[in-house]
Amino acid sequence: MGMNRRDFVRGAAVAAAAAASAPRMMAQEPGATVDATVRHQLMDGFGFSEAFGQAYGLWKMPEEKREYLLDLMFDQKKGMGFSILRNIIQDGGMPKGPFSERGMSIEPEPGKWNWNGDRDQIWLMGEAKKRGCGKFFSTVWSPPAWMKTTGMVDRGGQLRNDMYQTFADYLAEYVLGYKKHFGIDIYAISPANEPDFLAPWPSCIWSGEQLAVFLRTALIPTFERRGVTAEIIVNEDARWDDLSINTILADPTCAKAVNIVAAHAYTDDYTPYVPLCKRTGVFRKALGMGKRVWETEVSADGKNITNIKDGVYWARLVHEHLAVDQVSGWLWWWGASLAEKSRGSLIGIDPRNGTYELTKRFYTIGQYARFVRPGAHRIEATAMPDKDVDLSAYHDDATGKTVVVAINRGMQERSFPVTLKGVTGMKVMGTRTSATENHAELKEMHVKRGGFRAVAAAESVTTWVIG
Predict the structure, then answer these.
(1) Nearest-CA neighbor of 417 among 379, 371, 464, 374?
(2) If I label 260, which of 12, 46, 119, 134 is the partner at 20 to 30 A Cα–Cα?
(3) Mean pLDDT of the residues in the chain
(4) For residue 433, what are the β-bridge partners?
(5) Of 377, 271, 270, which is closest to residue 39 (Cα–Cα)?
């Protein structure tokens, strides 16, 4: 027997009422679960570069302010504890003043070696090491002009085919020489900076196929023969893309020797806050082969923005790279630099006047760098425990500490419980950067009933350390 209209309407009303009441009856409070028994990528650290003469600018700051900034950048207790420093392997191009993209090469002409240049970067590596920065890696923007097809370091060109072995010897000598002459261990070498980009400054164009041939026939066997243990990093393209990386890893010799793959996270979009999807993506082939992924350079053009909105934006990029793209190492472009009027640096400096300008992005990125230490693992965690909140977590076997980082991009405070699994620590220490705070220490809490309550202030980045 069919249902008449009155029965249908009555039944629909009852169903609608039940549906409306169900969420109220079954609703659960937002919250996060952090599970230290489920591990993801091993963390290598966070860093930046002082290339193009920026180390010299820092060196020339008044001593008291210079020491303060060095502590602020590299010391974990006094500052942000950045643990990776990226250097430029000088190409021998003609410098345009002390703050230049070009610098004295260790091999200014074939077979002639010079170890008297690069004083500013060598000084900075020593200062960083004293403060706990343990990884130095060096990138080639351009080989020396005499090795290139154009005979000049600027505006692209390519490495000459007959110079593959010479360039490999040059890179091996760089690593060995810095250890011999300066006591500096170079952790990794990157033979090409943005090989996909024809830049007006020192640059060199490589295809993925060309780099694979260079690695297989020259660099890898040379490093093996001469006992160079530095990691080889490829490919540092300007865009967050793994096409050339995949080409290199398709070569069996390269796949065996290369442990770290890298890219930059620039885009062709120059709006202040480029959608993060244009800077992110999973390098599936490399990860599937057990390689570590690094993001080795990113910044933005235009007038400097020092506020918390900018800080939260870049912290969200760190989160996406770490929690989604499984990145192990993450680097900004310049740390302290003379680009005080642009977004290219974390700290703007003016050695002439002895002044500096700090940015919120320096502190929000530091919410990761200071607490997520090299050797920790990212662990399983609820990615979005509440509205507008991005969350990730890390565990360090060496210290027994678990770190939880939450970004609140919204305009309202969010409070939610965090349930801990496989975490033995009982004390919870919080540190926050917001519109009015820079790494402010929060009131100590304790783990109760297997968790704690997290409070994420509006537009903020908060780090909790459980230990």
Answers:
(1) 464
(2) 119
(3) 93
(4) 461
(5) 377
Enter the DSSP assignment of 400. T
Q: Residue 47 in contact with residue 368, Cβ under 8 Å?
A: no
> pLDDT of 81-135, one tens digit each?
999 999 999 998 766 665 566 778 999 999 999 999 899 999 999 999 999 999 9
Instruction: Single out the residue of 251, 334, 276, 344 nearest to residue 306, CA to CA.
Output: 344
C-alpha to C-alpha distance for 372 and 393, rounded to whole angstroms: 9
Q: For the chain, how far is it from start to end, CA to CA, in angstroms? A: 68
DSSP codes joined into one string, 112-130: B---S--HHHHHHHHHHHH
- The values of phi and psi at residue 259, to 5°, are -105, -20
Q: How confident is the model at residue 29 (pLDDT cuts 50, 70, 90)?
A: confident
The residue with tokens 């993060």 is 276
- Report the relative pairing of strands 440-441 and 427-433 from DSSP bridges: antiparallel
CA distance 87 to 342: 21
Its sign, for the CA torsion 88, 91, 93, 94, is positive
pLDDT digits (tens, 9 = 90+) for 56-66: 999 999 999 99
Q: Kindly tell me the burial class for residue 258, based on how many C-beta atoms sit within 10 Å of its own C-beta (0-12, 13-18, 19 or more).
A: buried
Each residue of 114-124: pLDDT tens digit?
999 899 999 99
Burial 171-205 (b: 16+ CB within 10 A, else e): bbbbbebbeeeeebebbbbbbbbbbbeebeebbbb
Taking the C-alpha atoms of residue 16 and residue 61, their distance in angstroms, rounded to an integer, is: 70
The residue type of 130 is: K
CA–CA dist 193, 277 (Å, integer) = 23
Handedness of CA 298, 79, 461, 260 (dihedral sign): positive
Instruction: Give the mean pLDDT of 379-389.
Output: 98
Burial class (CB in 10 A: 0-12, 13-18, 19+), 389: buried
Structure tokens at 311: 């800080």
Instruction: Using alpha carbons only, give the angle 125, 311, 56 rounded to the nearest 5 degrees.
Output: 25
pTM above 0.70?
A: yes
- Are the C-beta atoms of residues 267 and 280 closer than 8 Å to each other? no
Chain position carrying tokens 């740390």: 335
Beta strands in 53-141 (DSSP E): 84-88, 135-139
Residues in a beta bridge with 435: none
Q: For residue range 142-198, what is the model confidence (pLDDT) as tens digits?
A: 999 999 999 999 999 999 999 999 999 999 999 999 999 999 999 999 999 999 999
